[in-house]
TrEMBL record:
The keyword Secreted does not apply. Keywords: Leucine-rich repeat, Repeat. One of its GO terms (cellular component) is cytoplasm. The lineage of its organism: Eukaryota, Metazoa, Chordata, Craniata, Vertebrata. This is LRC43 protein. Signal peptide: none annotated.
Length: 327
């Protein structure tokens, strides 16, 4: 589940271990009984006073922070770690009480769990009450229960999963969602097209449906046209993208669209395809594919066979081959 993957991620960050957390290396800074002037749990302490009062057997905040930032330190995070991970480690040094227990859920506005084998989006996500961005790409998610998603969510990225049905996601979708990433999944129409309308996503600005199995261009456009705030759309990799008039029809059908398949839509292109959406008869659901065979190995080459002698009555041996392509 997402919650299990998150807990494992926190364990790897070592937020309770030296130089983070509370221990023998900094316990006096967070002992309210011995230092009442520092405020509740030591979180309102004066850094200058604390620096002066650091016992000899403890480490100062500056020294602990240096252990996190020095690339030669054994406690430094790898260079490819996210800024959020670095921020959490710093908080665990300066104000460890803010990342202890359930408090840690209030810190996150963005959560990235990529390639961790996650199969379930569980209700534990509801603890992230401030979460605005959820990235769950490259996992094994097939269904998403919208009731388990934080209500403040604005970005939901589910690329490279196994999502084939949007019904559960659209039961109670986050009302403020602005980006929905569903590229490289198993969606196909027309059963799923009905879930891509403003009835479910009134504030959607960006939608990625690339590399699924949508084939009905007219049906999909009729749903997408209700998304009045949609500005970015990615549909490349779907069978419908092979239709000759695909791009022109979309550009003219969705006049508020700014970017289609990562290509900006300019005034000249809009003028070029003007009124194309009124001519659906031009849409032909077919595509021509040309395949060139460069080389075939493992079969006899007829040109190298010895020629028959003139007048010979020996049987003639012929060869024929069939090459099959499966789409």
């Amino acid at each position: 589940s997402v919650s299990a993957a998150f807990q494992e991620h926190l364990r790897c960050l070592g937020l309770r271990d030296f130089p983070c957390g509370i221990g023998s290396w900094n316990k006096s800074r967070f002992n309210a009984r011995t230092s009442p002037r520092r405020g509740r749990l030591g979180l309102e302490a004066d850094p200058a006073r604390e620096e002066e009062a650091v016992p000899v057997d403890e480490e100062s905040p500056d020294e602990l922070m240096e252990l996190l930032s020095d690339q030669h330190s054994p406690w430094a995070l790898p260079p490819d770690c996210s800024p959020q991970d670095q921020h959490l480690r710093e908080m665990a040094v300066l104000t460890p009480e803010l990342v202890r227990g359930s408090n840690v859920f209030q810190v996150f506005k963005s959560l990235r769990i990529i390639g961790k084998g996650v199969e379930e989006v569980d209700e534990g996500l509801l603890q992230f009450q401030q979460l605005e961005e959820l990235i769950l790409s490259a996992n094994q998610i097939s269904r998403i229960t919208s009731a388990n998603l934080p209500r403040m969510l604005k970005v939901l990225e589910l690329c490279y999963n196994a999502v084939a049905d949007l019904q559960d996601l659209c039961t109670l979708p986050p009302p403020e969602l602005q980006h929905l990433g569903l590229g490289y999944n198993r969606l196909c129409g027309p059963s799923q097209e009905k879930y891509l309308s403003a009835d479910f996503w009134p504030n959607l600005v960006s939608l990625d449906l690339s590399y699924n199995n949508f084939v009905d261009l007219l049906g999909l456009v009729s749903q997408l046209s209700s998304l009045q705030k949609l500005r970015i759309l990615v549909l490349q990799g779907n069978p419908l993208a092979l239709i000759p008039t695909y791009r022109g029809f979309l550009v003219d059908s969705l006049p508020k669209l700014s970017i289609l398949d990562d290509i900006h839509i300019g005034p000249d292109e809009r003028h070029q395809f003007h009124s194309l959406s009124r001519q659906p008869e031009l849409i032909r659901y077919e595509a021509r594919v040309v395949v060139s065979v460069g080389e075939i190995k493992g079969v006899p080459d007829p040109s190298t066979l010895q020629q028959r002698e003139v007048g010979s009555k020996a049987p003639v041996v012929t060869y024929s081959y069939c090459v099959t392509y499966e789409f």
